[in-house]
């Protein structure tokens, strides 16, 4: 038995009805509002906008720091060492940072780590602009920033729970992840332009 060929009378063949584009909006009504619903929480908005500045700045600093190490040393090994110094503390101390953020005020940890990150960036900038910077300074400051980030990242992630309501929590986490990953693109791009 051969199957009946597709036709308009055959129920297995459906002719789609094409409506003019004006009848179907590209973005369903209220969808944009739902995408950013966690923004209705003032503290979450403040946190997220502060995080944008911090993360973009940190990624810009990572690019500038790497460029400076390579420009001073012309050594791929030292370039890799600088990146290693900024990442190994996060790997080694991240779980301790997580325990700290569970046992202490997440807000205070974030304020303290952001202040220390700012001081670290000022120290690197001052050494560079004064002409006294050496490769070991950059490696030590990269290690310091990595240590700061080991405590900052878990506290920042856990702080979101306190900034958005339970029904908006998944949306807040999604927005936070989007901002983090966007900063990984935008920060180095801006640093490259500068």
Question: What is the compact description of this entry?
Answer:
The chain has helices spanning 31-35, 42-73, 76-103, 106-130, 135-163, 169-193. The protein has 194 residues and is mainly alpha-helical.
Largest beta-sheet characterization: none
Secondary-structure element pattern, one letter each: HHHHHH
Let me know the number of strands.
Answer: 0
What is the overall silhouette?
globular
Helix content: over 70%
Distance between the termini: 72 Å
Overall mean confidence score, pLDDT: 87
Strand content: under 5%
Can you count the helices? 6
- Which structural category do the helix and sheet elements fall into? mainly alpha
C-alpha-based Rg, rounded: 25 Å
List the uncertain runs: 18-24
């Amino acid at each position: 038995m051969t199957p009946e060929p597709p036709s308009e009378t055959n129920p297995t063949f459906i002719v789609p009805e094409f409506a003019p584009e004006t009848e179907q909006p590209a973005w369903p009504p209220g969808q944009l509002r739902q995408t950013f619903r966690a923004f209705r929480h003032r503290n979450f908005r403040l946190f997220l906008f502060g995080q944008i500045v911090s993360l973009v700045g940190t990624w810009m600093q990572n690019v500038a720091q790497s460029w400076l190490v390579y420009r001073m040393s012309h050594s791929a090994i030292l370039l890799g060492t600088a990146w290693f110094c900024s990442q190994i503390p996060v790997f080694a101390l991240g779980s301790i940072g997580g325990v700290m953020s569970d046992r202490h005020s997440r807000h205070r940890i974030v304020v303290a780590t952001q202040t220390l990150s700012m001081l670290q960036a000022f120290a690197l900038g001052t050494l560079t602009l004064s002409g006294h910077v050496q490769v070991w300074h950059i490696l030590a400051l990269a290690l310091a920033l990595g240590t700061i980030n080991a405590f900052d990242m878990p506290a920042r992630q856990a702080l979101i729970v306190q900034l958005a309501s339970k029904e908006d929590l998944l949306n807040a986490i999604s927005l936070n992840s989007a901002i983090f990953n966007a900063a990984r693109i935008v920060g180095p791009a801006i640093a490259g332009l500068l």
